[in-house]
Amino acid sequence: MDSHRLLGIALSFVPGMTASFVRHMEESGLTVEDFFSFSQQELTARLSVNNPSCLDKMIRDEARFRAEKEAAFMDKHGIVALSITDDDYPFRLADIDRAPVTIYKLGKANLDADMIMSIVGTRHATSYGMWYVATLVDELAAYFPNLVIVSGLALGIDTSAHEAALRAGLPTVAVVAHGLNTIYPSQNRDLAKRIIAAGGAIISEYPFGTKSFKGHFLERNRIVATMTDAVLVVESADKGGAMSTAAVAHSYGRELLALPGRIGDEMSAGCNRLIRSQKAMMAGSAAEIMSLLGWQPRSVEIAPKQKDLFPELRGNEKLIYEVLRFSESPVPIDAMRERTGIAIHELMASLGEMEFDGIVERLPGNRFSLIPY
């Protein structure tokens, strides 16, 4: 490891060091090498600060010592450090004031990929939420084979997102809340190995030996929320980690989407609130999300599929078509469920397919109608 990268790691071991302070150093014309070689008096004068404790030489020397120990662990396990002073630090993260000073990365995923989407949600996922994630990721992969899916490796929706990406052949990144010497939860150790083997990555801002605790998970959420172009919340109670991630994403201007659910469903309360407060756009089919985000494949022109004059429909789609054909006004999703008797997760799947096929259109208020021929 070269000395510049080693000193970048050492910065993260200086108590109280922040991305904002590093930027102030750079604006003052100081390099990371200067920070560790200049006297405390020189740094105080150059930085125009009131002699903060982080400039104490003993503290800086201790940080270098800890960085050397960390580098030995990294070399042994194939871990790469990305420091905010380096050109290869993820550019999306570099823009935020609370950016980690250093990120540790195990795996080959490109953290500066053209398109990155974070998918988060409850640990108590329903079959509807897991089905939606699997279907959406599979559809997006057909248009964007290099799309990176980010999540937090937790049980529930996070696990579904990583698994869906692996099945679709997409790289996926798991952001964890502990050092890379372990994996939490332990049930996902095999998943973590498969993520790395498939060209994804496990990343953390925490050095070797750091254990996970509640505060770390909340800090982890800010990385999930900001190293991405868009954050999709799939099922969340009114309070929880996914809502924390959504709040951070919204505060930093990231595109925010949420999957709507039935009124009264505990695991949809958070998503419904995000949509109702207009903080999040309503997530639907892959085609709808691509339209909302302005994502256009380079080699594929997205257009509704050619409609047949009399669509050949069967099963659930035929029932939906008949309800809409004889309705004088758009039909809300709850009324559709009552008239067809179709389970909500199957109903959403069929409506998504019919919307993509150009047979139905989704209107405000989660209402549907046939597209006129």
Notes on the structure:
With 373 residues, the chain is of the alpha/beta class. The protein has three domains: 3-89, no CATH class; 116-293, Rossmann fold (3-Layer(aba) Sandwich); 315-370, Winged helix-like DNA-binding domain superfamily/Winged helix DNA-binding domain (Arc Repressor Mutant, subunit A, Orthogonal Bundle), CATH 1.10.10. 45% of the residues lie in helices and 13% in strands. The protein has 16 helices and twelve strands. The strands form two sheets. The chain has a nine-stranded mixed β-sheet, sandwiched between helices. A three-stranded antiparallel β-sheet has the order 10-12-11. Strand 7, helix 11 (241-251) and strand 8 form a beta-alpha-beta unit. Helix 1 (3-12) crosses helix 5 (57-77), helix 7 packs parallel to helix 8 and helix 7 (127-143) packs parallel to helix 16 (344-356). The radius of gyration is 24 Å and the shape is elongated. The N and C termini lie far apart (65 Å).
